[in-house]
């Protein structure tokens, strides 16, 4: 009998690991040394490094800011968003593109729900390469490309990571809706050609999203579905979130377009109920 087949020895071994820290893990309680000026440490909600092939999820209150940092220049943050109070309302990529007359995400752009409301908005964007066209990988695409698409294998897919993330909120396979990909971009040429912008890029590019409703975010960090490399390649992603004020009436993003203003008004109407 080995030491770890003995329950008492296994318990002692596990307890001896207390305090061990690895790069990819949540920090509890959350601590970050690089919060923006004016943000007190007590307002920090979430600090986590998401491993290559990992996933993470959190509920964030209205007004919270979520900063994502591509630590090594090769992360792909596939993002799902739900209304935390009523998760049947969720990110609608088609409406996000259609309502804004623009398929390219970045500073000032909105992430809209299927109820015509703003779930989150881009308040800062130091990357400029995002994708609202392609969605994420799945077990079949990864099996075809890498020879293994299993969620427990060496090359997991974004969709299967989403399944793990949504399950933590009582959601199921049918709740994994089309996503946007952050830090990996796609452009569409006039002739319809798809031109990936997949890097790798400079290290430490970042963006900040603002929660316009109480939201659930689910992030999968897996290679972009159009990544041409033969090897499954992605690098860690850092997530930091803190409390912030609700968007005021004169906010420049809120008032930038009539379509966007209407989506913000729909949010405000929701919170009047």
Descriptive notes:
InterPro entries: DUF1989, UAAP1. Residues 48-216 form the DUF1989 domain. Pfam families: DUF1989 (PF09347). This is Urea carboxylase. It is a single chain. By secondary structure, the chain is an alpha+beta fold. It has one domain (51-272). 19% of the residues lie in helices and 26% in strands. The protein contains five helices and 13 strands. The chain has helices at 7-16, 93-100, 139-146, 158-167, 258-272, and strands at residues 44-50, 55-60, 65-70, 77-83, 110-112, 118-125, 130-131, 180-182, 185-188, 194-197, 205-211, 215-221, 237-242. The strands form three sheets. A six-stranded antiparallel β-sheet has the order 1-13-3-11-6-5. Strands 2-12-4-8-7 form a five-stranded antiparallel β-sheet, covered by helices on one side. A hairpin with a 5-residue loop joins strand 5 and strand 6. The model has no long low-confidence stretch (mean pLDDT 95).
């Amino acid at each position: 009998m080995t030491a770890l087949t003995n329950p008492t020895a296994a318990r002692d071994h596990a307890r001896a690991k207390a305090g061990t820290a690895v790069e990819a893990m949540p920090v509890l309680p959350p601590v970050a040394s690089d919060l923006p000026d004016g943000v007190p440490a007590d307002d920090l909600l979430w600090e986590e490094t998401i491993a290559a092939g990992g996933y993470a999820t959190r509920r964030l209150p209205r007004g919270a800011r979520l900063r994502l940092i591509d630590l090594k220049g090769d992360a792909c943050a596939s993002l799902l968003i739900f209304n935390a109070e009523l998760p049947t309302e969720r990110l609608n990529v088609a409406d996000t593109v259609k309502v804004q007359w623009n398929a390219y995400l970045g500073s000032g752009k909105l992430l809209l729900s299927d109820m015509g409301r703003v779930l989150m908005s881009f308040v800062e964007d130091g990357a400029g390469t995002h994708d609202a066209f392609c969605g994420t990988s799945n077990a079949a695409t990864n099996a075809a490309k890498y020879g293994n698409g299993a969620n427990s294998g060496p090359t997991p897919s974004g969709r299967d990571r989403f399944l793990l993330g949504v399950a933590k909120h009582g959601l199921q396979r049918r709740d994994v809706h089309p996503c946007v990909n952050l830090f990996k971009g796609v452009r569409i040429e006039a002739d319809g050609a798809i031109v990936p912008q997949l890097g790798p890029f400079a290290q430490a590019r970042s963006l900040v999203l603002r929660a316009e409703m109480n939201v659930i975010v689910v992030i999968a960090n897996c290679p972009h579905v159009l990544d041409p490399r033969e090897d499954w390649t992605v690098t860690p992603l850092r997530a930091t979130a803190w409390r912030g004020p609700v968007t005021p009436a004169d906010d420049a993003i809120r008032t930038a377009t009539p379509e966007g203003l209407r989506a913000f008004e729909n949010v405000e109407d929701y919170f009047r109920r």
